[in-house]
Structures are given as structure tokens and as C-alpha cells.
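Table S5 (text form). Sequence records supplied for joint modeling of the two-component complex.
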Amino acid sequence: MVSRAGLNSERPVSASTAIEVCGISKSFRIPHERRDTVREHFLHPLKRTTYEANTVLRDVNFSIRKGERFGVVGRNGSGKTTLLKTIAGIYRVDAGKVVVNGILSPFIELGVGFNMELSARDNVIISGTLLGLSRRDLEERFDEIIAFAELERFVDQRLKNYSSGMQVRLAYSVAIQVPFDILLVDEVLAVGDAKFQQKCARTFDEFQAAGKTLLLVSHSPTAIRDYCDRAILLEDGAVVSIGPAAEVVDLYYEREGIATS
Amino acid sequence: MKRFWRLLTVLIGMDIKLRYGDSVLGYVWTIGKPMALFSILYVVFGKLVRFQASPPHYALYLVIGVMLWSFFSDGVTRTMNSLVTNGNLMRKLPFPRLVIPLAASLTAFVTFGLGLLAIAIFIAWNGLVPRLDWLVLILELLELYLFILGLGLVLGVMYVRLRDIAQVWELAMQLLFFLAPIVYPFTVAPARWRQVMLLNPFTQIMQDVRAIIIYPDHNVIVAHATLSPLRLLPLLVVAFVLGLGFILFKIEEPWFPERV
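The corresponding C-alpha cell record, covering 521 residues in total, follows.
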């Protein structure tokens, strides 16, 4: 069990919980007048840089049970990706605590940190290693990764020659080969083609059958409704609603003023 | 630990591939660039303008200086840049961030292997026979590596916040190149100044390496064994810079993904 820094006191998390998010807040400091160069510091040595705190997450609370398929909906800029990054341990939270119970595989911002100058083969090795796969794991799973992404013909081509859809397919293929308990997925369905979307959906079913937990982030409400059991709606960094996915999505439509079918 | 090592080797492999992937001559550049610098300096200061007290075996003297200098400058620059150039990885994946500067500095060390080969060729050419005390060279190179890592960490952490650091370092390198007796004989500097210059660990290491290889009468082991306080000072500088680098890194590490 991994718990991340926070102010809340230790609270026991039941064994059936995969992710426990307790009152987390996160803000980024944005300087009002960027002074990144020494020259500016010299020109205005007495002027102090003032910062504006851009609060992206406000006291977010929820917990995800093991084996659950959990969705996060909200507009662009509502804090969905930041939430995923704090859960993945990439961002440090200002307040609150995140407890992750199990091995986590993050697929954030449509990728796993590929380098465009390297071939798919090299990128799979680098990202796979960073995600915790051993050399033997990688050797065993390499063909499967390439096959799932359907990129056999392009293995030794550099990623800069790939279409964005191909890159996303490869990144997702790597992320799901990690022996994870919890998969964090950020918008994969929005990019792949119809066939790949279908394939992803099939993997979601397989993960559920295997008792794995899925945290799916999307600004596409239909995806959340189709693939998730429960969901939260984020608005300006705060949880507006939490409950069965269909209800949360309806509320989202309502608040956005979109007629539902 | 095993995973950390594996991460390190994979990242070093990637660094090397990225550096030479696009060029026709590839690895030849690793040795070609410092050798070109050596040739220019040798023609200018070995043939055209000669120093009054030109040290014996000047070509070997110079090649040691130039190869160590390119290891130092290349290593610090790479380590400094590594955090910013790998920002994409840090924004997307959680992993021990320290592997990034470690991999960058070790890549420079690996590349330096070719520089060592060049030095070895010059040694053979000058008819010098290896001696047992040359084993001390390993310690000297280790000290140089730790100095590079420490300085690279300090500059790299600062570079994440303040992008001017790259320009400042570029200028500092030009200054350091002439502050250290890479090209000129150390005796050109007045004796008093030599003590001050030896505070720079790079100068101390380079002079030690030259002394061990070319001028065995100037016994470095004895000098180290007596541990005169003056000899300890550059070692303290290395320890201080390395400690500072690690402390700054630890303080800033959690904020890299959002600041880089």
C-alpha cells in the first residue's frame, strides 16, 4: 500500500478499496509577470514577483473499490488530468492524501513519455522499463505489445513518422502490459479509430473479469456512461456529483445545457 | 536496486543512440571533436607560438588536458540539460527522478572511454611504459566523475527554475578553460596563484593525471599519503559540490513535473 504525503491523519483503508482520495487540493503557482531570466531580475531587482495561485483541485474526496470501473467527467480544464497525476504520484498534493492499494499503471495525456526521435522498439523498451517491466517481461511481451497496437510493419521506424493515432495505440499497448491492479486511462478512446476503440473496450471487459480496477477520464460522456459503473463530475476542481455513471453523465449534460437523447 | 540499475542502463543506451542516431559519422564525433580541438591547440601553441618553458612531452601533456576537459565540459552540460530535456517523461510517469541526471553523467563517462583510448595511443607513441602506480588514475577519474555529477546536479536543478543558467554555464566554461592549465604549462602562473588554481578540483585532477603518467618524479601518491591540507582542499570542494547537488535535488524533486 502506498500513501502519499498529506495533512490528514492516518485512516485505515479497507482491503476492498483500490484508491482512496481524502480531501486533496492542488494549486499551481503562476507568476504574474514571468521573470525567468537573470536580466529581468537585474532590471527590476526590487520588484518582487507576485504569484497567483491557480487552484486546480479543491478538497476532492472519493474512493474506488477494487474491481470497479470508475469514471471522471468534466470540461476541459476542470482538473481531470491533474487528479490522475496526483493519484499516479507525479504531482505532490498541497493538502489531503491519496492512498493507492496495488500496482498502478498510468496512461496519462495520451502517452507514456515517448521520444519522437527513437523507434517504436526503443520506445517500448524505455517506457516499459520506466513502468517497471523487467528485461525478461519485456522480451516476453514485446511481440504482444506490437501486435495489439497493430504496428508490426513499423517497429523500427521512428515515432516522429507515426500518426498520432498510431502513437496512442502503442502507448496504450505498453501501459496494459504492466502487471497492474489499477489502470489509469486518460482519454484513450477519443483518439483511436473505431476498431481500436472497440479493442480498448474489450480490454476493459477483460480487466474487469480479472478483478482489476479501471479509472477512466474523459470529456466524452458517452464513454463514461458505456464503460463505467460509477463516476464523479468535476467542475472547476471540485466534485459536483458522485454516483452511478449514467446519472452523473445526465447531470453533466444538464449543467452544460445539452439536450440528452 | 536491480530495477534502478536496469533503468539506468536503458537510459544510457537511449542517450547514446539519440546523440549519434542522426549523424553519418556517429561515434567518430565523440573522439573527433576533442581531437580536432587538440590539433588546433597543438599547431598554435606547440608549433607557432611556443611557451618559454614548454613542458616535455607537450603533445601528451596537451592531449591529457583536452580529453579530460571534454569529459568535464560534456558531462556537466549533459547532466545540467538532462532534467529539462526529459521533462516529458517526468510529466507522464512516476519513477525515481535521480536516474535521469545519473544516466546523463554516466553517458559522458562511457563516451570518455574513447578519449582514454586516444591518451593511451599518445602514451605508447611517447614510449612511456605503464607502471603500477597508474592505478591511482582510477581514483582520479572517479573524483572527476563525482565532481561532474555534483556540478551537473546543482546546475540542472537551477536550470529547471532559471533558464539563463545554460548561458551562464557556457560563459563559465570559456573562463574555466583558460583558468586551468590545459594549454599552457602550469609554471606560467606565479607560484602563489598556483595554490589558488589548485583549489579547482579539475586543475588538481588534471595535474595529478599528468604527473602520474608523464612526470613520475613528482610523486602524487606520496603527496596524497602525507595529506597536506592543501591537497585535501579540492577533495573537500568535490564533496561540498556533490552534497549540495544531492540536497538541492532532493528538495526540488517533487516539483520537477510541474516546473520543468
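Note: Chain B has a mean pLDDT of 89.
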